[in-house]
User: Fold this.
Amino acid sequence: MSSEIKKKKGFYMSEKTILAIILFVVVFGALLVTATFTDLQVSQFLTKFSLPKGQYYADDVFGRAFETIGCSPIYLMLAFAFHIIFWNVFLRIKDMVIKYILLAVSTGCGVAAYAVMGKDVLRYIVRQIGYEESLSAAFITCSMVFIGCVACFVGTLAVRNFKDETIKNLLTFAIAVIIIAAVANGFVNLIKIPAGRMRYRAMNTEGAQLIGGFKNYTRWYVFNGQRFTENEFMWYFGTTDACKSFPSGHTCSAGMSYCLVMLIDVLKIKSKGKKIALWVCPIVYTGLVALSRIMVGAHFFSDVLIGGTVAFLTMLLFREILICKGSHFKAAK
Assistant:
């Protein structure tokens, strides 16, 4: 009977794939249920020594450090992807007009990735040291574009050291990275505004006490919309991003490091040590960023859980579609 069902469906999953899916569903489900009922308590415990009462921004060094560099993986992965595309165009496209257009586009995108990362890092640094208002936007933009050009030049030259065959094989990886970044982060940012979940640190401010403080807490599945005007946001919280807690953009961006897992398939890596490293490093980094976001009061447990999971599942989906090409779903005979 089971074999007949498999034939009707036209495919079946290997036992390893089935076990992996079951394990993921059980673990994720358990964590989500836990987060649903303990979000506020977890945040109260983890912010106890890092977020002074009445403040919006935390003083914790660990939290500040990962707030500053937490989003870097998405920019680095995109920059690397554009370097790969650059050399594939250079080596494989014969039409000179199309070649130079694509080279210019890939270079421009690479510069933009580095520049935006630099601007993002600088924004957090100057805010933390209290010089947010002293640097003009034009100066910051010009500086970051210059740094982006230098970083792109160095990165492009570094990738050229790869073998031509490796560069060719990495093209699918590069395309997958761009799609994963767009889909995962697009989804997270699309949800933030209608969700309208107030950040823990926003409820912690003195201004928030005028409107009930922590009585504004809602669970992750409640969609609140944007409850305040821009002026009201500034009046109560001193910022306009006070109600963008769910899901966590930082954790999703950190989760772009999961794309490294695809290198196992693309480069046909056999070493168990390298395979373990390519799985463990993204998990550890994303976990540290997630922890730091809770510690500074920027997000709740469920926010970072969903943010990181969106990145992970998006990677798995496009890894299966573009790189593995359904190898985990074997055709039934």
